[in-house]
Amino acid sequence: MSNLFSRSSLRANIVTVAMACLLLVLVACGDGDGSLAPRESEDSSSLRHSEDSSSLRHSEDSSSSRHCEDCKDEAISSNKDDVKSSSSVTPKSSDSETSVSSSSTKSSYSSAKADGSEYDSTANTLKDLRNGQTYRTVKIGNQVWMAENLNFETDNSFCYNDSAEYCEKYGRLYTWAAAVGKSERECGDISCTLPLGYIRGVCPSGWHLPSKEEWETLHSAVVSIADSKPSTEGALLKSTSGWNRSGNGTDAFGFSALPAGSRNDGRYRYAGEGDCAVFWSSTQDGLYQVRTMSLLYDLDIILVGHSNKYMGYSVRCLKN
């Protein structure tokens, strides 16, 4: 595994892509303000890459307009030294879509509503009793994951482009504070104290927001189960359609990662639809950043990196 994560050629390629994408951003987009069942999606902004000598990292400073098709709006560098191992599972594929309400307002489902969940290990489904929505699930190694992005409306959760159709396709985009079930005042751009153990956050009862180590366990399981070639493991988690510029995956495990893009508070608020899938973890990385897992249209690796807390990303919940 260590050979996979420390290949100098991979790092050199990432640096090359970074420089090219940075130039595209500067020329095509100008300056911004700050800144894992197949489905269909189009359009895009994309991501730019930068290397950190010791780790695959992922940080976002500025987003480009969704009309700037060839631009990349996030800085990414590499970190795969500490990926853990996991047990095996038979790869499989599946298909599905989700549904939800629109925009960024607080959930209409009050605390008086049912706050449980129903998991069917035979049908591989999870029903969130807060809003009645059912998600596909998949077991990879010893972990049971949602095989669709979470689509539960809360404060500081959003539909891409503020349009309900994107929530139906991709689920919602959450700030990190929303993902861990806190307000922006409690856990926005500040370091905050979370309880030990599972962080349920915005997930249904009995499920939780995965930690960085749990994302790494998934990564290791995919590599060991599929016996994949170096730098191709990300394709095994990507959906078979919806990714821009021939970036589709094989979805060998049925994880069906969709390129939902991201949101920030900058001038170009939404970017990357069709280009990237970024998922929150519950692991903080300093005062302002959090560890993430990312997949890109133009790379078939799994990026375990970091990002700013104010960004809006997808959530995949993991069974307790």
SSE topology sketch:
Elements: H1 2-5, H2 8-29, E1 46-49, E2 56-59, E3 72-78, E4 117-120, E5 125-128, E6 133-140, E7 143-146, E8 157-158, H3 164-170, E9 173-174, H4 176-179, H5 184-187, E10 207-208, H6 212-226, E11 262-263, E12 270-271, E13 276-285, E14 289-296, E15 299-308, E16 318-319
Parallel strand pairs: 1-3
Antiparallel strand pairs: 2-3, 4-5, 5-6, 6-7, 8-9, 10-16, 11-12, 13-14, 14-15
Task: Identify the notable features of this structure and list them briefly.
320 residues; four-stranded antiparallel β-sheet; three-stranded mixed β-sheet; 16 strands; disordered N terminus
Q: How would you summarize what this structure contains?
A:
This protein has 320 residues and is an alpha+beta fold. 18% of the residues lie in helices and 23% in strands.
